[in-house]
Design goal:
Blueprint: H1 2-13, H2 16-22, H3 27-33, H4 37-59, H5 75-80, H6 84-111, H7 121-138, H8 147-171, H9 175-190
C-alpha cells in the first residue's frame, strides 16, 4: 500500500492515513512499525538504494555511493578497471538486476522523493555527472566555448544522461531490451 501511495502521489503528497486505509490497518498500527512517513518511505526504497550502493562501492573501491558522490571524475576508477567497455557492461548487468527486483522503488528514489533527505538524489547525481562531463570538456580545446559555457553544457549533458535512465526504467519492458539500450546510452555519452 505504501509503494502504491508513494508512486501515485510522491513523498510530499502521500499520507499515512491513506496508506493505512489501503492496507486495512489503523494509522496507529503503522506508527508502531515506522516512526514517521520518512521512515516508511525509506523502508520502501531501502532494498533498491542498498543494492545500488553495494554495486557502486564494490566497483569503485568504496569511492562512490549514493551517500557520497565525489567531486572528481572516475579516472582513478577507470585506470584500475579492465576498461570502460567492461565497466559499462558490468553496470548494465547490475542495473538490470536492480530493475528486475526494484523497478518501482528505483523510480520512487529518483523521481518521487522530494521533501526528504533522498529528495536531492536526482540533483546530486546530475551534479556529480556534470563534474565528470565538465572535466572531460575542459581537457578539450574549443575556441567557441569558454569554461563557463563548458560548465553549462556539462549540465545539459548530465541532465540528459540521467533523464535517459529514468525513461528507460519507466518504459523498457524486457530485461534484454533494457540492458542493450543502457549500454548504448552510456556509450553514446562516454565513448
Amino acid at each position: 500500500a505504501a509503494l502504491k501511495e508513494f508512486k501515485k502521489n510522491g513523498y510530499q503528497a502521500s499520507s499515512m492515513r491513506s496508506i493505512a486505509e489501503n492496507s486495512d490497518m489503523t494509522v496507529g498500527n503503522i506508527y508502531r512499525y515506522y516512526k514517521n512517513k520518512e521512515d516508511l518511505f525509506f523502508a520502501t526504497i531501502q532494498p533498491a538504494f542498498e543494492r545500488l550502493n553495494v554495486f557502486l562501492r564494490r566497483h569503485t573501491n568504496n569511492n562512490l555511493s549514493l551517500d557520497f558522490l565525489p567531486d572528481n571524475n572516475l579516472n582513478h576508477f577507470m585506470e584500475r578497471s579492465e576498461g570502460l567497455p567492461d565497466v559499462i557492461n558490468q553496470f548494465a548487468d547490475v542495473f538490470v538486476e536492480i530493475f528486475k527486483e526494484y523497478r518501482e522503488e528505483l523510480l520512487l528514489l529518483i523521481t518521487k522523493s522530494q521533501g526528504l533527505k533522498y529528495g536531492q538524489t536526482k540533483h546530486k547525481i546530475v551534479d556529480w555527472i556534470q563534474k565528470i562531463f565538465y572535466n572531460k570538456l575542459l581537457s578539450e580545446s574549443d575556441e567557441f566555448m569558454n569554461d563557463k559555457d563548458k560548465l553549462i553544457y556539462a549540465k545539459v549533458l548530465a541532465t540528459g544522461f540521467l533523464q535517459g535512465f529514468i525513461v528507460l526504467v519507466e518504459q523498457c519492458k524486457s530485461e534484454k531490451q533494457l540492458k542493450y539500450i543502457i549500454e548504448k546510452h552510456i556509450k553514446a555519452y562516454f565513448l
